[in-house]
Amino acid sequence: xxxxxxIEIKKSVFENNDREADKLREKLKENKTFLxxxxxxxxSGKTTTLGRTIAALKDEYKIGVMEADxxxxxxxKIISQTGVKAIQLHTGGMCHLDAGMTQQxxxxxxxxxxxxxVLENVGNLVCPxxxxxxxxxxxxxxxxxxxxxKPLKYPLxxxxxxxxxxxxxxxxxxxxxxxxxxxxxxxKLNPKAEIYFISAKTGEGMExxxxxxxxxxxxxxx
Amino acid sequence: xxxxxxIEIKKSVFENNDREADKLREKLKENKTFLxxxxxxxxSGKTTTLGRTIAALKDEYKIGVMEADxxxxxxxKIISQTGVKAIQLHTGGMCHLDAGMTQQxxxxxxxxxxxxxVLENVGNLVCPxxxxxxxxxxxxxxxxxxxxxKPLKYPLxxxxxxxxxxxxxxxxxxxxxxxxxxxxxxxKLNPKAEIYFISAKTGEGMExxxxxxxxxxxxxxx
Lengths: 222, 222
Hints:
The structure is a homodimer. The first copy, chain A, has about 220 residues and is of the alpha/beta class. Chain A contains eight helices and eight strands. In chain A, helix 3 (about 75-80) links the parallel strand 3 (about 65-70) and strand 4. Chain A starts with a strand and ends with a helix.
């Protein structure tokens, strides 16, 4: 299967995003659908990470993917080739998704059918952190080339994520990146965050991430 | 000199940003101050590029730098060590700067003193593209690790920039990055964009960028 729909999502009409997000989360819980909100800068490797994650988990869970981007269908095309249902959400220039926009996507993908739905948010370390999408859990990627100082500059994003993946560890030989410093900076903002060092390209370290996800999904859907 | 001020900038009160931006540009022209708005994703290398640019041009021009970030003083500290005047603008969570916010920064740095002022915008490929800061010219960095598909996903940013620097070319051996494809994608959005391949780390290719800047500054300030 390599078909995917493209959905032009509309600006939300809700005034109270937090309330809508909580309502959406309750509904997802009721329907036994675990929704992961995956965030990062542009080019940190969200889609590659997702491709490997789907390959590892698709025999265990029924998976659906919502790819959000301002423009293009690049990511939905890649993900649809993994054999899971993928839709592309176009945000009409918006730099993030809120709960109302996420709900439009969930309706369009018919989320009730799935155990596990991923929302790949717009590549942006600022705005997506400010809007609760209603997801069960938030995860983010920080890639080695971006630098170990990013928790200092984008503290809110690191504060709201349940799991932080440090990606592209296969490229460490060509960058100055301090593992200990980045962990210390993240933990200072968010002591409970799970942090895993991975390479979505080579697969290194990804089993820890898969196991974290299995635990979250099973706990949510039980 | 390694002192720098930290300015908490306030949300703009102006309703018509485009009009304010044009007014600011006129004033900069009158005062013979060239303002460059430098944008990119988080971690593309804006500050390193700027460090090399200052080293190359500081004997020719009187340079001031405004570092915008949501939090931290990391960048102003680095830039102030180059010996030019640097200030840190804190955006109070805002994901971009508009003309009114830029003006607050220019007043604080006393822009009239300088031939060449750089605004290092918030690391973000989405929102800064939507707000004219009033700068003389816009430039952006796309780094090799981010991937050659970024013009497809963030078309507005590539459309509004006068110059696009493809940075971190020293890391090409560990990434799949198609030079021709990226140039084609940028040119399709913005046929007039100047595109230079550089490594801010090694200095490769940077002379083209310096020459482009010299031309813009001299033309603006004549």
